[in-house]
Amino acid sequence: MPKTLEERINELEARDQIKEVIANYNHGYDKRDIEIFMDIWEENAIWDLGDPQGSCQNKEEILERLQISWRDIPQTHHYTVNIVISFDRKNGEATSISDVDATAINKEGVPSIVAGTYYDKFSNRTGKWRFIERKVKIHHLTPVSEVR
C-alpha cells in the first residue's frame, strides 16, 4: 500500500532529524562539546568502535570512552557522506549506513587520515531521534608525512 501524504512528510522530517543526529556526532566530537555529543545517544545505546577500542554499552561508558579519545587524539575533523537511511515505521526505528573521512592529530602530534563506514540504528521512542547503536568500521588509518 502506498504511503499517505502525511506518512511521506513524517518520513522526510525524520530523515532530516536523523541527518542532524549524524552531523551532531561530528560537531560534538570535533568541537569537544559534551552536551551536544551526549544528547545524541539513548540511555542504553551501543557505541562499537571495533578493535582495539572496543564497545560501549551505555551513555556512561560512551562518556568515559569519549574522554579517553579526546585525551589521546586531541584534534579531529569528521566528514560524513553517502548517508542512506531506511525506516521501520512500525517500531519507530531507523537504520543508516554512511561513510566517513576524518583527519586526526594524536597527542604526539602525528596527523592521520582515516576512512571508515558507520552502521547506525536510531529510535525516536523519547520523542527525539537518537542513536541506539553506532558501529564503526575503520578501513584504514594512515599517518601522514609532512608535505614540504
UniProtKB/TrEMBL annotation:
<dbReference type="InterPro" id="IPR037401">
    <property type="entry name" value="SnoaL-like"/>
</dbReference>
<dbReference type="Pfam" id="PF13577">
    <property type="entry name" value="SnoaL_4"/>
</dbReference>
<feature type="domain" description="SnoaL-like">
    <location>
        <begin position="11"/>
        <end position="135"/>
    </location>
</feature>
<protein>
    <submittedName>
        <fullName>Nuclear transport factor 2 family protein</fullName>
    </submittedName>
</protein>
<dbReference type="InterPro" id="IPR032710">
    <property type="entry name" value="NTF2-like_dom_sf"/>
</dbReference>
